[in-house]
Q: What sequence folds into this?
């Protein structure tokens, strides 16, 4: 037997082996052996074996925590948010169980005493049916109807847009999202413009003008609200479901196909089950949005006294029933919290399905064949119904003297730029009305300032979260800024009213000022702002800043030369996206604004109330235009998908 | 250049959590190229960050030269920006909004170095690292290897006495990694800095370091030169962690007296006062040899095996040998002219054996006895 390496070591050994003899057994130290020789054996006595005392430890931690402004900033912002977010909500919830000013005689107790009167009134007394239970049922029926409808329309569209070779796929992917960029009550106003009947005064609707009288069920209440909400939230399904479908690895489909499954079997047995969490999550989010929706049920429900929770709450506020309003707002808040807890669960469940193949993801498009034209027609129809028709209706309504009469002499620009009009109050075209410009100015600076502040604070929250050595502070900041997300806007506004309607300590009564609008909007935007800030800082990580630190830069220097310049882009997004959603927001402002602090949205609502249909529609078109242009600009600027601004 | 001294350094996250670093005593001498080597989660990066001041201590003390920079008991903490060190991050952490030139001169600007001097220094460093042609580019326009050079240049520009490197080569491909290793060695000589280098790659540690500190589960396992670490592993962990293919370990704790383990116990009894206390025997793959039973050198540890696998690795070969029960791996540097299924004997010299006690510590008694009875060459 001959082995090549036999008996001797190979000549070309890579590593010279140190022979123990020549090395004289260098200081090799098995550590736990008693002969272990410690590098500074002589100095060891200087260090006591006992752990450091509490005092020493505290002194050291304090020194580290206070060395940089991070922790101080964190504590200050935490206090600020506690005051702007937690205190109003707590104040509102206390209102619900205390005798309110003006109710002393009715309840028979002095002001400020504990009482169950409001809870009883809202949930148990005979009037509770009108105050809470019927609105609750209406809210549920409208929300579920809207969810069902938007699913039926949105799910096929999501699939067509993300996984098929439909004509104009890319264009539709953007076009079908447009309804979400517009305020929801754009559609509500378009609907009344078309279907309004004699139940309410003012100018007749187009259908009525053409000689048919639409029945009440078609003109107002449940059906139109459901349809309008469905149109508005269908983009939600298209976006969320579409994203999930796009990420879906074709290899999962292919495996099923190779095993002999037919296309419908693949869809039913593989794709749908895996998509279920994404779909359910989209639906739950739609529900949460419907819960806080105010403008649509206000415009379409009021004429037939069709009340949902948000309008019932609004009615309680306007009739100064602050106790009942607090109970209702609390109830809306509770439902909102439960809904979002369900969503959090679903998202968690969705993580279990790892359908995101990192490298292997292949997105193969299904060939539609003969169905291609049909599918395209379907998408085009949905686009026409959800964008084209409403906007066209609104626009035409603002340039027509008599609704629904399509004759050349009926068209006029008077409602935009006319003078000395034959009306009681608004005697000029809307563009010439000082009220519009004051509302526009209010919108710009209130929403603008709130967005800039919340954007900056969001980044600060992100910074503190990532950097503070004091973890509980970071956790508190993240959670407190998330809180408004659980509270629908109208309930949050009620909370603000509860805290700031009267003078409290050094803080004057803010109701009727722009400050309350600004503070409320800022707090309401914090969930998005802080989420954006935290994710931006997380993505950046500590490294670039630590590199500057090691290079010798102090805190302010690092902020100015490293952190802020790097985060410039995300700061712009963090300001722009809340700005857009703030401009089209209504439910927060409608409770807090008074005529002198009107923003564009509340101004148009006031015009609706006074039946200045053309003017109201014109204002809504302006808002829609700003919101749409803003969204596009934000997209261009940040090169992101609209899907990311979804939360707003 | 000063020495870095860690005394009894400890770091724990949270009160109940296990220590990320516990009772670490380490001295890093002037001009040393020290590698902190260990598996992920062993506390090596935490140690590095403690030295840099990016992580504070739970107890203990860190000194640079005579200056205490961090001490819980004395309530001293010198922030990273005042420690005058350089640190290259695993992610490079280049500033995306600054050009390569401005990334490089950031530290000099901070120190308010006069313009002419600053430019000369930046020029020198960029030339040394061969990145001067990218000076006006942004980090995102560079490849990983180039970014790595910029990260190094940025730190070298301020001429730090101490350069800390946190797995800086782990994101590079194999070829670049080799180049950068040579580069690091050159920098160590040229810039005359003390380097502390964190890696989980033993090859990197062996090729670069003048000293290696092997860490595991937050504590120091062994401190020594690369050769010491390899040839005289202080415990079973070090023996198993360093070396590729890994060392063969025969567990000798079990009761059974047959097979390879039985043979080993019997063999070791000759060098050791008794078989008690011996936990395991380690033999490096290249210390194993194959021979016919009558060719085995006297006094060596041997046993019958069958060749069950031949794995060429390009230039060398790994043989899988089935002993009685335990598989052994051996490496050969010449093509083995041998067939699968061949029955033969393995053998190894006694001084190539690593004996560990039941706690996994190296048996110094065994080493001493072997040394005494081996004739001096």
A:
């Amino acid at each position: 037997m001959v082995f090549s390496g036999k008996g001797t070591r190979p000549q070309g050994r890579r590593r010279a082996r140190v022979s123990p003899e020549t090395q004289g057994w260098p200081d090799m130290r098995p550590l736990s052996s008693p002969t272990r020789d410690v590098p500074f054996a002589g100095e060891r006595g200087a260090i006591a074996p006992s752990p450091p005392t509490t005092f020493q430890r505290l002194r050291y931690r304090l020194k580290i925590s206070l060395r940089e402004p991070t922790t101080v900033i964190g504590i200050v912002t935490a206090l600020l948010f506690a005051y702007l977010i937690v205190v109003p909500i707590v104040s509102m919830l206390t209102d619900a169980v205390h005798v309110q000013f003006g109710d002393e005689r009715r309840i028979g107790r002095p002001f400020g005493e504990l009482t169950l009167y409001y809870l009883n009134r809202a949930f148990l007394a005979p009037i509770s049916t009108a105050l809470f239970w019927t609105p609750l049922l209406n809210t549920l029926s409208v929300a579920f109807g809207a969810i069902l409808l938007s699913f039926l329309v949105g799910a096929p569209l999501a699939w067509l847009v993300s996984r098929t070779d439909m004509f104009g796929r890319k264009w539709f992917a953007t076009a079908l999202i447009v309804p979400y960029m517009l305020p929801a009550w754009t559609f509500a106003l378009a609907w009344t413009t078309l279907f309004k009947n004699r139940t309410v005064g003012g100018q007749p609707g187009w259908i009525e003008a053409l000689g048919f009288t639409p029945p009440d069920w078609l003109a107002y209440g449940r059906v139109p609200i459901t349809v309008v909400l469905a149109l508005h939230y269908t983009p939600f399904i298209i976006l969320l479901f579409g994203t999930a479908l796009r990420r879906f690895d074709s290899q999962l489909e292919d495996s099923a196909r190779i095993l002999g499954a037919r296309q419908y079997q693949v869809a039913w047995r593989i794709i749908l089950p895996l998509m279920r969490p994404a779909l359910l999550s989209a639906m739950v989010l739609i529900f949460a949005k419907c819960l806080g929706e105010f403008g649509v049920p206000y415009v379409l429900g009021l004429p037939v006294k069709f009340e949902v929770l948000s309008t019932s709450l609004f009615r309680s506020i306007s009739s100064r029933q602050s106790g009942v309003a607090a109970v209702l707002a609390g109830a809306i808040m509770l439902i909102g919290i439960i809904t979002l807890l369900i969503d959090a669960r679903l998202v968690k469940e969705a993580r279990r399905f790892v359908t995101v193949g990192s490298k292997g993801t292949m997105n193969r498009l299904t060939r539609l064949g003969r169905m291609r034209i049909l599918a395209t027609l379907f998408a085009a129809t949905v686009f026409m119904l959800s964008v084209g028709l409403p906007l066209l209706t609104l626009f035409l309504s603002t340039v027509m003297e008599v609704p629904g009469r399509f004759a050349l002499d009926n068209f006029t620009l008077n409602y935009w730029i006319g003078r000395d009009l034959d009306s009681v109050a608004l005697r000029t075209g809307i563009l010439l009305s000082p009220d519009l410009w004051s509302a526009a100015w209010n919108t710009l600076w209130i929403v603008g300032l709130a967005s800039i502040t919340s954007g900056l604070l969001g980044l600060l929250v992100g910074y503190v979260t990532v950097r503070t050595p004091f973890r509980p502070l970071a956790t508190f900041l993240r959670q407190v800024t998330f809180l408004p997300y659980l509270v629908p806007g109208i309930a949050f506004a009620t909370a603000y009213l509860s805290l700031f309607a009267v003078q409290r300590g050094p803080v004057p009564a803010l109701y009727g000022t722009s400050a309350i609008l600004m503070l409320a909007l800022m707090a309401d935007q914090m969930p998005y702002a802080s989420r954006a800030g935290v994710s931006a800082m997380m993505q950046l990580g500590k490294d670039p800043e630590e590199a500057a630190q090691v290079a010798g830069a102090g805190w302010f220097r690092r902020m100015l030369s490293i952190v802020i310049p790097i985060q410039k882009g995300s700061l712009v997004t963090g300001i722009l996206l809340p700005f857009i959603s703030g401009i089209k927001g209504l439910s927060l402002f409608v409770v807090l604004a008074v005529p002198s602090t009107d923003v564009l949205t509340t101004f148009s609502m006031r015009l609706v109330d006074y039946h200045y249909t053309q003017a109201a529609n014109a204002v809504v078109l302006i808002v829609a235009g700003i919101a749409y242009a803003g969204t596009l600009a934000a997209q261009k600027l940040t090169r992101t998908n609209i899907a990311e601004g979804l939360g707003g | 250049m000063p020495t870095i001294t860690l005394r009894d350094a400890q770091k724990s996250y949270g009160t109940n959590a296990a220590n990320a670093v516990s009772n670490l005593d380490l001295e890093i001498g002037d001009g040393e190229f020290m590698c902190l080597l260990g598996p992920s989660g062993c506390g090596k990066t935490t140690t590095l960050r403690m030295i840099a001041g990016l992580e504070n201590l739970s107890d203990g003390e860190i000194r640079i030269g005579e200056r205490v920079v961090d001490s819980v008991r004395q309530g001293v903490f010198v922030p990273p920006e005042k420690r005058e060190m350089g640190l290259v991050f695993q992610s490079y952490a280049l500033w995306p909004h600054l050009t390569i030139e401005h990334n490089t001169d950031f530290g000099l600007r901070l120190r308010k170095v006069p313009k002419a001097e600053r430019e000369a220094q930046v020029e020198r460093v960029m030339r040394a690292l061969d990145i001067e042609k990218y000076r006006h580019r942004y980090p995102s326009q560079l490849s990983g290897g180039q970014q790595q050079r910029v990260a190094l240049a940025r730190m070298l520009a301020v001429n730090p006495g101490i350069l800390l490197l946190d797995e800086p080569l782990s994101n590079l491909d194999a070829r670049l990694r080799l180049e950068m290793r040579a580069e690091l060695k050159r920098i160590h000589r040229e810039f005359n800095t003390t380097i502390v280098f964190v890696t989980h790659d033993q090859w990197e540690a062996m090729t670069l370091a003048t000293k290696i500190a092997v860490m595991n589960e937050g504590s120091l396992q062994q401190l020594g030169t690369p050769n010491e670490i390899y040839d005289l592993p202080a415990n079973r962990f070090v023996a198993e962690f360093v070396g590729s293919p890994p060392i063969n370990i025969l567990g000798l704790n079990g009761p059974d007296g047959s097979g390879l383990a039985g043979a080993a116990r019997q063999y070791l009894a000759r060098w050791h006062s008794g078989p008690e206390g011996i936990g395991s025997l380690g033999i490096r793959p290249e210390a194993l040899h194959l021979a016919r039973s009558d060719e085995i050198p006297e006094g060596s540890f041997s046993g019958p095996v069958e060749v069950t696998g031949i794995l060429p690795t390009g230039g060398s070969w790994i043989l899988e040998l089935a002993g009685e029960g335990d598989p052994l791996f051996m490496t050969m540097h010449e093509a083995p002219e041998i067939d699968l299924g061949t029955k033969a004997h393995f053998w190894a010299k006694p001084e190539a054996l690593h004996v560990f006690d039941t706690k996994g510590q190296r048996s110094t008694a065994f080493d001493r006895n072997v040394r005494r009875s081996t004739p001096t060459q």
Chain A touches chain B through 65 residues (CB under 8 Å). The two ends of chain A are 80 Å apart (CA to CA). Chain A has a mean pLDDT of 81. Chain A has two domains: 69-99+413-642, 116-354+369-411.
